[in-house]
Amino acid sequence: MSKPEGPEVLTAPVGCAPTETVGRALTGAEAAELAVMFKALADPVRLRVLSAIAARAGGEACVCDVSDGLDVTQPTISHHLKVLREAGLVTSERRASWVYYRVVPEALERLSAVLGRHAGLEVLA
């Protein structure tokens, strides 16, 4: 017997009782936006760069500050900072010939809410 054409309709198994909804699921747009952030953090160097910025006094750092202890070139660090900035995880500000980076706390709070078991998704509203 051939499979019918058209979209597949998903149905609950017989005897499956729906569970209570206690929060709000992500919309497609929210999931797409958060996926960009998670993808940016999926690289170990970028995760370390973000951590290095967050660990600095005053919560900001320049490229030379975050490259300490990383076995990559300064241009590579700059590339990773660009990815973090485009993902909305850090902001940058040029001061004379230096660019300073800061972590965006609201972005980390959104990621935390998605990952937290008991945090709920109200932050996304």
UniProtKB/TrEMBL annotation:
Residues 26-123 form the HTH arsR-type domain. SMART domains: HTH_ARSR. Keywords: DNA-binding, Transcription, Transcription regulation. Pfam families: HTH_5. It comes from the Bacteria. GO terms for molecular function: DNA binding; DNA-binding transcription factor activity. This is Winged helix-turn-helix transcriptional regulator.
